[in-house]
Amino acid sequence: MAYAFVCFPAFAQVTISCSSPSWGVAARPRRLLPAVRCASSAPEAVAHETDLFDLKRYMAEKARRVDDSLDRALPLRHPERLLASMRYSLLAPGKRVRPVLTLAACELVGGEESTAMPFACAVEMLHVMSLVHDDLPCIDNDELRRGRPSNHVVFGEGVAVMAGDALHCFAFAHAAEATAGVPPMRVLRAVAELGKATGAEGLLAGQVVDIECEGKEVGLEVLEYIHLHKTARLLEAAVACGGIIGGAEEEEVERLRRYGRTVGLLFQVVDDVLDVTRTSEELGKTAGKDLAKGKTTYPKLMGLEKARLLAEELAAKAEEELQGFDRNRARPLRHLARFIAHRHN
Amino acid sequence: MAYAFVCFPAFAQVTISCSSPSWGVAARPRRLLPAVRCASSAPEAVAHETDLFDLKRYMAEKARRVDDSLDRALPLRHPERLLASMRYSLLAPGKRVRPVLTLAACELVGGEESTAMPFACAVEMLHVMSLVHDDLPCIDNDELRRGRPSNHVVFGEGVAVMAGDALHCFAFAHAAEATAGVPPMRVLRAVAELGKATGAEGLLAGQVVDIECEGKEVGLEVLEYIHLHKTARLLEAAVACGGIIGGAEEEEVERLRRYGRTVGLLFQVVDDVLDVTRTSEELGKTAGKDLAKGKTTYPKLMGLEKARLLAEELAAKAEEELQGFDRNRARPLRHLARFIAHRHN
């Protein structure tokens, strides 16, 4: 399938090499960066018995500050219906994985949390707006999101379209305006990063190809194109923006980028696994949706156990990208990769 | 109606004072900047017989370069359906009034056209994305735009939503990344300007209030709130961004802002007039739409002749804001105001 060679530039940068026979990267060795050892040959990256870290508490504290910042950034004001719709989705309880990644990456390279907070908020706004639009009847037609009725169910389709658009605008305005104490060049670079990650060469490319492939049999290469764009690209940008704002060196930004991309793919593999193993109540969204729609998923292509193994391998690969950073400062991102690999909803 | 006092901050900055008895600003003198003379008492701003300028040629040349830049910035690539949808609307023949305003404002304050081109393109992308989403069945349900079938009629609703979103992302990424030779602080300020102009405190606020008021009787204050947000705010930002990128002084940016806002209101008053006086063929979009929908318009509220007079007064007011700038360099913006006042479609 020549498609992958021409159209999958992001995919070609994935550096994972592992033993799964259906892993589609091996056919394109020249486009790959040097292969790294997979989980099975790198046991030191799998378990660190002494690496104690209360990730749950870390995540909860960061998420609380993100929630506070989002709430303060977007108070209810006129026109109330629009603002209420924006706030309904933006402030819905969530794990805030993406903004926490931004904050953690900024701190990893020596930056302060507060300087990265506007970008962390912007990343979440862009994520949430993509969910609001995805759920629309003319796209995924999903009536349940984060355990509550979707935005358009509550506010109507027209307002949901506009609330998504308004979150979009606000994300960029907020990132550009509220980021303080950072050289403007860095802020600009991070703004461009967010724009590219969410647009026609990022998230939306994945979304469109995903819809085009609905009901069709696709192979691992196309499945990975979809996930690397639809899910991983924004996670990559979330981490990269944190690094850029925190003043990371070029090579550090690239390592953070690869970490984010790998974690993004991991996120989706786990999502696919959860879709077949969990109930709607546990997930807070419609379960078994992919299967019902005849969508290709990792468990469908490689079986449930191999998909779980792939998740382990990706988690190990993500951890490897963090080597070279200060080990102590890297703990949150290291444990976040493990958390994403082992989450239950 | 207390609504206007609380919710219409942009409205309160309009500095027009004129003799129309139904002009609703006079009731809030403390929130107004010093009143300026209206057209009838400032004949020198109405007609300049010796001020010859080939606006048609100027506009055509600028629009051609904007078209070229848009075409180059967004080539057709994978995923083709998404890009084709974006290009279908973005490259549809249009007058490019907003980007021309950006370029003209930049040159007015001594900047070079090329430095403002990425922002000119971004302004057009944001304008076009708002049209694509406005036309959706769940919002304005309009099947004709710029003389051609609307985006969702050709590409389907889902793709139209995503193409609009992708234009949105690209606008910000392009403005942030492609602007060269300008201090990053200026670029950042202009990015924030665009985000605010198109979001919940700008264009979308006007859009939502417009929809909420459909089928209701509204007064001039609400009508002006709608137009100052839905139409004028982006025109204001187009001009302000040109000034900011060109290195305008603070006070110059404010004057440009007022010029843009006045021209924006003018644009809408003329639009309302054209809606009742022109055919769909002449307009390139559905004519008589406002009337059919029972929408409040300027002609409906004040009669056709008074609406025409208001347009003249706004054109004169816009020209007055240009006094103090180099008279020669201000010619394009001066004539643009007249052109908008006297356009036929």
From TrEMBL, chains A, B:
GO MF terms held by the record: metal ion binding; prenyltransferase activity
Pathway: Isoprenoid biosynthesis
Pfam family, one: polyprenyl_synt
Cellular compartments per GO CC: cytoplasm
Chain coiled-coil ranges: 301-328
Keyword vocabulary terms for this entry: Coiled coil, Isoprene biosynthesis, Magnesium, Metal-binding, Transferase
InterPro entries assigned: Polyprenyl_synt, Polyprenyl_synt_CS, Prenyl_diphosphate_synthase
Stored CDD domains: Trans_IPPS_HT
Cofactors that this protein relies on: Mg(2+)
Biological processes per GO annotation: isoprenoid biosynthetic process
Origin superkingdom: Eukaryota
Listed NCBIfam families: FPPsyn
Family of this protein: Belongs to the FPP/GGPP synthase family.
Name of the featured protein: Geranylgeranyl diphosphate synthase
The species this protein was found in: Zingiber officinale
